[in-house]
Write a structure and sequence with these properties.
Strand content: 25-35%
Shape: globular
Strand order of the largest sheet: 4-3-2-1-7-6-5-8
Largest sheet: 8 strands, mixed
Radius of gyration: 15 Å
Order of helices and strands: EEEEEHHEEHEHH
Number of helices: 5
Length: about 170
Amino acid sequence: MEQTPNFPPIPLIWVSTDVPDLPFELPAPVVVRIEGQNLVFVARRASTASPAAPCEFLLHRASIQEVGVRVGTDLSPRDIDSADLNEFASIAMIRHSDPLQVVPFFQSQFISPKSYWIKALVKLLGDQFNSNIVNLGQGEEIRELSAKSQRRSASGFVRNLRRILSMG
């Protein structure tokens, strides 16, 4: 396995999932890092007077079945209003096993307005976990995958995404 440079936490937006019980609501800004054999997602929260403990979700290396990726156009916050995010944003779809084996897999979708961070995730997962990376392509393929795990309406999603991007 090739040694990957020490990556800083990778900032992404966790858009949707069919995991039944996340410790935070989606969409949510998260940072992704590797700790040992786990991919760790930490929900970033806006600063508050009484900061809560960080919300984490872990995926063990062996549970990651496939990572679908589409590198899109870099977007600015004003592009969010007019863009079809499934068409233009950089997307990573992580398919991971259900630890209880009730369903064959769960699927989680992440986006980044900057393609660099999706590329960094691919490098990290490819180099450290030897994950199977698949190019998702354009159009219907992404829409079909997204529809299976989307939990928010389009207008609510765009409103939440604008809020997340303004958190910096």
